[in-house]
Amino acid sequence: MVPGAKERPVQEFLNVLLFRPLAHLVVLLLYRTRVRPHHLVLFHTLLVLLAARLIHLGQDVPAAFLLQLKTVLDNADGQLARLRGEVTELGRYLDTELDLLGNLFLFLALGARTGAWELAFAAFLVFTLVQSYDFNLERLYREAWGLPLPVEERDLPTPPLALLRGVYRFLFLPQDRGIRALEGFVLRRFRLVPERFWDEWALAGVVNLGLTTQIFFLGVFLLFQSPEAYLTFVLLQALYLVLWYLWRILRAIPSPR
Question: Superfamily for 13-146+158-252?
Fold first, then answer.
């Protein structure tokens, strides 16, 4: 485990293999500087916005490079915060919400570049759903197995924090509640075994479609100058989610006695 890396029951493969070690090199360079974690968040958000503009202009190779650099810095901000003891509620909301903003601009750029606006919009919805499932399923797993939830810092009230909290409640809380309601309904309706419905195998099914993996593959498709193929790749994940969900239900049905 890289020092300062976020502890998760199941880790995203590309993070462990590539991006977290690279991010740790950045952290070593920045640890004794005045650079704060939120500076990295703001900077890698600017990189995403610049990459989106480059995609729109057809500059795929530099866009692909900037997106991978963004992922390195996205890992580095959390590592730096944890190693320095600078984890804050404001930083958590800022990172989450600016990631969503960056994702939105990427799909707007893909829509403008390809002219396939409906495809880009649908892909953005699928992309966002996958990320929401990645977040919520880990929490359900922890609850099912009696594990502690990640500690969430509470900052002193400030106007920026109030704004970010409000944005989260408006954009993310309905997703969280919807996923938890669906999961609970399916669990009760089919009388599933919670420890099998929410286990590490179930987690692995979405963890490895996390933001790092999605951005990595966007970069790959851009290197081949195939932005529309990436949209199709994301849409196919909707079919994957359906099959993955059915598999989870079947394996969590209690064995007959």
Answer: CDP-alcohol phosphotransferase transmembrane (TM) domain (1.20.120.1760)
